[in-house]
Prior knowledge:
The protein is built from eleven helices and 14 strands.
Amino acid sequence: MYELVITTAFGVESVTKRELRRMGVEDPKAIEGSILVNGTDRDIARFNMGLRTGERVYIKLASFYADTFDMLFDGTKEIAWEEYLTADAKIVVNGKSKKSTLYALSSCQSIIKKAILVRLMQKRRQHTFEESGATYTVEFTINDNQVTLLLDTSGKGLHKRGYRDLVAPAQMKETLASAIVSLSDMRWERPFIDPFCGCGTFVIEAALSALCIAPGKNRDFDFLHWSFFPKKEYREALQEALDQEKLDREIHFCGYDIDPEVIKLALHHAKNAGIEDKVHFQVRDVRELSSRFSEGVLCCDPPYGKRLGDTKGAKELTKILGERYRALGQGWSCYVVSAVPDFERHFGKTAAKNRKFFNANELCRLYCYPVDRRKEKKESNETDY
Ligand SMILES: C[S@@+](CC[C@H](N)C(=O)[O-])C[C@H]1O[C@@H](n2cnc3c(N)ncnc32)[C@H](O)[C@@H]1O
């Protein structure tokens, strides 16, 4: 058993907690942008592969008080690094410090790395260290002189699923898009439309979730290169994930955008994700938004005039989106991420609720216009999209 720390974006903690509960974790605890759980090697593999909204999975190695460099050195050297790191480990140290005596990050990085190397050389009677092997990234946080040392099992952030290799203007991070989808009333049998789809993030994340495809099943993780990590646990976690896929589901998930170039990117990304025959992308102005279905889910982040377009144009698009949404009929819900001031007035309807997020460091809100589907909810299985 390890103590695991799963980091999340601001405002997403409760969504990641819910995901972890669905994955069988009994008591996930949320603390300032991270979730603490106990877990095994198998869980490290499952969480990295399966979490849609977590940013990284860390093993917590130690927590101790330090207000001098000597204390930082000694506390770090106490850890049994030789149980984790190989003789050729490439050691990367990153971190941050808040309200603490030790605030010079590069000095803290050097001290921590030195303590790890001294410990390893003493324990292994090693005199040199080539760092030519697997990467071990050690993350430190110092808060009120309390040092926490974490080992990053993920490597690249979990938003890097592997399918999005081309960049569209103002694209949304996959983990945040997935969190927004899971705050919506998306279900696999319900049509789903993103009328401002850009490179397809919402539609692809929603489809992966609807088809129960693990977002990290095709990517690499740092833990896979560690000799202490039993590879069998990864293979079994992968098999478990593949067994859960529901690829025979017929879904109606579409993305539209006015820009033909981003539609090409969306198609390319859907192909990379292996779901090009499950989703549909098309060039279409939001002014022409319509659907043959009487119910469904709209989910989008239209331009809000900072990263894309201007504020006047963004307000106009918000107004058009509101009009087109209402024209779809009462069976449609709508979830819009926006930073347009006075959004609800421009959209023409007060949201049932809204929620704060940071999208690319900008404060936005998710405006939720759900449909009352209480009867359906009772009949549906909550753990299954
Ligand atoms: C913030 S971006 C969406 C990014 C997307 N969520 C992603 O992750 O790639 C907004 C998108 O709205 C599109 N757009 C702007 N005006 C539009 C219009 N009138 N109709 C449809 N799409 C429009 C832009 O081309 C841009 O791709």
